[in-house]
């Protein structure tokens, strides 16, 4: 039946690696392909840094011509 087919697939199972991979951040812990070859702590720091950079990224200001058009000034 359809219910039995999902039992064969375990979505939470990680793929086994033939060799150990050290963290790309050279912290000495083991990295994972799922985390861009970073250990958990380095990956967490990387994600947090990306989030901060995305929030801190300045908005693109419109050009002078677009600003004049927004206020209704014709050249």
From TrEMBL:
One of its GO terms (molecular function) is DNA binding. Pfam families: zf-A20 (PF01754). This is A20-type domain-containing protein. Keywords: Metal-binding, Zinc, Zinc-finger. Residues 21-39 form the A20-type domain. It comes from Vanilla planifolia (Vanilla). May be involved in environmental stress response. It comes from the Eukaryota.
